[in-house]
UniProtKB/TrEMBL annotation:
Residues forming the catalytic site: Y154 (proton acceptor)
Domain (Ketoreductase): residue spans on this chain: 5-185
Lineage of the species this protein comes from: Bacteria, Bacillati, Bacillota, Clostridia, Lachnospirales
Protein's gene: fabG
Protein name, as recorded: 3-oxoacyl-[acyl-carrier-protein] reductase
BP term (GO), one: fatty acid biosynthetic process
Sorted UniProt keywords: Fatty acid biosynthesis, Fatty acid metabolism, Lipid biosynthesis, Lipid metabolism, NADP, Oxidoreductase, Steroid metabolism
Molecular-function annotations in GO: 3-oxoacyl-[acyl-carrier-protein] reductase (NADPH) activity; NAD binding
PROSITE patterns: ADH_SHORT (PS00061)
Family: Belongs to the short-chain dehydrogenases/reductases (SDR) family.
Amino acid sequence: MLENKVALVTGASRGIGREIAKTLAMNGAFVIVNYNGSKERADETVEEIRANGGSAAAFQCNVSDFAQTEAMVKELVAAYKHIDILVNNAGITRDGLIMKMSEEDFDKVIETNLKGTFNTIRHLTRQMLKQKSGRIINISSVSGVLGNAGQANYAASKAGVIGLTKTMARELASRGITVNAVAPGFIDTDMTSVLSESVKEAAVAQIPLGHFGSPKDVAETVAFLASDKAGYITGQVIHVDGGMAI
């Protein structure tokens, strides 16, 4: 489905990002596993992809840094000649009620989740415009759609990703580049594993399907949007949330 495609997945060393990288590789793409902090986890992701017959390489870059992201894109284009798929998955949380939230915690989340998405799109679109093709998939969140108490910074960043997605879809459509967002709900990852049972039960009560999703649910949606099957879909937000945002 994605043979001869090169995909860059940010924040791909664990959780949803790792599953996206593995799924794109399983569908034939060569995957660049971007990471910021953990080289060991990124290398494990690459090794797992290769062990299953796929192709991948790890690349360190803090996507919240404009200059670093520019340098990464230049190096990747020089090495691989084309990048066909960009998945903006890198994200962090610094939860807290707004009255207690520090400026640093607000800024850090916006810098990684929203500005990081802007940075990669900003620097990669020139290459995609030359190619007259491309798939950009931004990972938002149900929190960016509904809001969530204690996540003013995170919800704001993910709502911003949706606005950025719709605007980029309009700007880039004439050159054959689609831009869509995926908004996961509660997904079984390291982030949700630390939640107390009472919090998990309260969350499940808000989900019409009655259970948390899996990283694979998100990854398969991303793979579809990255494929030719989704060639006439752009500017959309696909909810992978068990019905939470109905």
